[in-house]
Amino acid sequence: MERRERFAIAVVLLILIGLPAAALGYQYWLRPALSSTRMIDIRAAAPEAGGFQPDAIQVNAGETVTLRFSSTDVTQGIAIGPGLGIDLGHVDPGQVKEITLTFDHAGTYTFYCNSWCSPDHWRMRGIVQVDDPANPGALPTSQRDPVIEALIAEGVDIDDNVHTDDHPLPVISLDRVPSVARGEMLTSTVNVPADLQNAAWRRSHSPAQALDLLIADNPSMGRAELADVIAYLWSGGLSAEQITAAQTLYNKNCAACHGETGAGDGPVASSTENNPVIFADAGYMFTRRDDVLYAKIRRGGMGTDMPNFGTLFTQDETWALVNYLRSFSGTGQGPLGDAH
Amino acid sequence: MRWLHTARIWRLPLLIGLLTLAWLVFPFPGAKAATTRHITLDASQFAFSPGRVHVNQGDRVVFTVAAQDVVHGFYLDGYGLKTRVEPGVSQQIEFVADKTGKFRYRCSVNCGSLHPFMIGELVVGSNTPFWRATGLIVLAAIGMLVYLWQSGRVQEMKQDGTLQSSTP
What is the ipTM of this complex? Predict the structure, then answer.
């Protein structure tokens, strides 16, 4: 073999082997070696194509890690929660977004897609398991939620709104859509029982129950006016910022099925097992307790396509969301409160 | 005088040139009054519905873009307008269609495998450059025939037998 021929073969081999070796070597060996923190590459794909890979990562409390998110098919949105306030925004295919962070105590967090990337988008979640280095063998304990535990102890069926032929949707009849604004004006002229003035009591009782008590105490008033007062009492008293935050959460996570105006007519509603609940229906929402709505959001619906959001949202965010749901039927103070 | 003679030669081409220019830029009569047009655009994998929108020049156009399955985007070429649409939360884009012509609107969020083909068209005003050019070509063809006839070429061709004629 001639010298030039050997040289040509060497050049070809260099390109065929050297180039991938350099690229992959940098990706998997050189860059992690040069980095001062532990690097974890997470590739995101639509759930039908595999979801997050890996979908579970383990770190120690106090350890600083760099998470590098990339997408292999469509535009994804990356957020980590609950309560961390981390939203990396959109990750286009070919783009890498990274975040360096330190988890200060043991527990579990969720990294999830917050952009509707495919019909199964809501399944796209991964787990960050934060271990206590002092106690490495300990299994993460499940997060306790006193509200849901109290409902279970009380024997409340969170899923009693899943209606079938022999189990109709719980609903009461109202003469008109209640208005928070009208209720606020009326409230000083109405005899409001002490229970109804207690926020904790209101959370664990439905507006329909409260309306019966209010009617009993104010026999001279009309039922429609008293319903306005109940709407005002259940409006939550959130600040404008809290409502905007709740609206953002709703639009990103709920509107696809429940609809932008809570009418249950979102574009994905046609593909769910049961029809999504209609928050704009005041007669139905009057039968709902705040703590049941809260539990449903956090735990998800049994036997329906309602996902659980307890691993994504904080408890305060969930309560704000409950108030936002009430705003669709005029019983809250959201932007749509009195538009109906 | 020599220059007058030259001008005489160039008089016809100059006239034709000026007429052509006038034909291409002179506004057509009967332009419609500008109105506001509300158009709902449904975006789903992998098409916009409607896929083609006609408006008149000067119209105020309000596009309501609604994603029907996954997150989509809307980008209008020429006007440089862009929005992102989550399913369930429609977005409005409002602008005055002051530029005439055909503009593509396309999905600006990578929504799936056929995302690059998710394209629609906005047509502003009648597509006059095309029709004017067509008219110009037809006129030029007629002009060429007339010129050939005038210059006696047709008679020659008849005599040669290159061009058959039924009339004696």
Answer: 0.72
